[in-house]
Design brief:
Keywords: Glycosyltransferase, Membrane, Transferase, Transmembrane, Transmembrane helix. InterPro entries: Ceramide_glucosylTrfase (IPR025993), Nucleotide-diphossugar_trans (IPR029044). The chain is of the alpha/beta class. Helices cover 49% and strands 18% of the residues. The termini are far apart.
Amino acid sequence: MIKRIWLLLCGLMLGQRCWKWWQVWRFFRKPTPQSQREPATTLVSLLQPILSGDPHLSTCLRANLDAPSSYAREWLWLIDDNDAVAQQLCHELQAEYANQTIRIISLPAPAERVNPKTFKLIAGLAQAQGQIICVLDDDTSLPAYGLEACLPWLDQAGVGLAFGLPYYRSFDNAWSSLVALFVNSNSLLTYVPYIQVSEPFTINGMFYALRRDVLEQLDGFNGLEHILADDFAVAQRVKQAGLGLQQTSMRHAIRTTVTNAQRYRSLIQRWFIFPRESLLRHLNRRERSLLFCLVIVPTLFPLLLAVVTVVRPSQRQRWFSAIYTLLGLLNFIQIDQHYLAKSTPRRYWLLVPFLELLIPVQLIQALLAPQRIVWRGHVMDVEKGGEFRFVQRRDAQ
């Protein structure tokens, strides 16, 4: 009986690996709808909460300013009063790019239990003048004409929010490379197949866009300050208003420097703790079941497969392990080359099977770990339901 269950599980996991790749292929064949707006007369406000600390900050900000777009744009850079490094950098870039509309908004520290990012978004929205509001993280770079691939979806019936797909370009050292490989090998194969069987229940908070009239209908970001997972909070507010979340084919690059093993572990643990304490506690039974079947089980399976292959070796088991691993590697290479701008250097390709064994261990560890995380230099305790409290605030720069 156990043998039959194992064979069934192996067949299902092999099938889902093929099915996910096929769904990604189908997704990128769908055309972007025609824009209902004249881009040259449509002002887009891009709200960017900014914190210094990463050596790529200047590169990311410049990449967005240099990225061509037919839309009229204004940049609202939301900076801490005490972040002297960010203040200096942003004022220098403002002077250098005098032909662009850049507004620097300096803000005090948020109150206790107030999400620093949401606090900044509320302040930025109050001064934004665009008909479309975009939220853009400071480590995220939009591609050339990326807005053109995303914003037309906002005028489709029932769509309240449109968002993109992230991938990483950070391969400066071993730890940054592991993070980049994790995202690049999982992002498309996680988000895209899910939306083929269900409406999205959350978004990628690195970049998303809403019409101003929709945001006003939703009372903006007000009332979301006490929730740590701000992207999930925004997504739930849009859905509760009866509007949809639109996953678009626009892919945006991220550069984040991870300097050592401790920071790598902390980052991965934060990514797993966020959904454990906020997202999973608010999903209905169907959404949790789909997340379990499409994400959690496939994530844990490579480790289970390796253990069974070692403990109960057989020629058939070894052949299956080799085929399953090789198929995963080929899927990753094809996706990286065709959809992620060949962002992963070839010398890292063979680390993907190793990462498939490492990530399940970290997932299990995060499920058992306490709720304390480090986020942008802040040490926080995450509470059940998604609220939080500061343990230690980020030092001034």
